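Subject: Sanity check before I submit

Could someone independently write out the structure tokens for this chain? I want to compare against mine line by line before I put it in a report. The sequence has 261 residues.
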Amino acid sequence: MPFASRGGVSLAYERHAGALPPAVLIHGWCCDRSYLAPQAAHFTAAGRAVLELDLRGHGESDKPQQDYPIHAFADDVAWLIDTLAVERPILVGHSMGGIIAYDIAARYPELASAIVMIDSAVVLPEHARAAIPPFLEKLRQPDYAEVVADYVGSALFIPSDDPERKAAILAAMAAAPYHVLVSAYCGLADYDAAGAGSVAVPALHIAADEPSPRCDLARLAALVPQLQTGRTVGSGHFCQLEVPEQVNAMIDRFLKLSVGG
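---
Independent answer below. Compare away.
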């Protein structure tokens, strides 16, 4: 497993060679690069170069005691892309990873050729923002692991999702390091897409099949007028794992139409 060190923090990554323009895969809160494994396999099989990574605080990367705002994750990813000479990649992010992709495209406008945000709350609906303070208060209690499991189980899955996959995800996310878990969630809550700036590159948002929208798409479209949107059928928040054939097909079509493949 290769690592790159930025400011003394080791970041784990994997690279796959390919003739097609590269994709950088960015996972979500309390997850790791395996949560985008179906997309990595799909792109690699199609001949696309792929960079997978574990964000700082996650997976096999270092987990220093520090704040974990969105811009810090984005700066790491932008630095890694530059360090590894990944030229004009497509950024594909799930959940928090999609917010990171947005932030990179807004603050590093020449870095990416397109972005894909998979069920990412780049702009929080008002009802979701109102629910954050009481949830953060619960996270700061001794039974925080149960709070995470309850939240993930109730808010991120729908009845048609695979129960074994759900159980594995619940256990893994609840086991995330406490300091990362809380600080990164605060980073999600504090993120201001409008403050980061608009995005000029082609952009796709794929929503999961959930009863309550995770992102305010009208406000996101105001920041990204060229935004294209899609929605999966019969899958919760982890749609990239649950129905990868749907997600991958939408990404493929988007890339063919927006960047030529």
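---
OP: Matches mine. For the report I'm noting this point. The longest strand covers residues 9-16.
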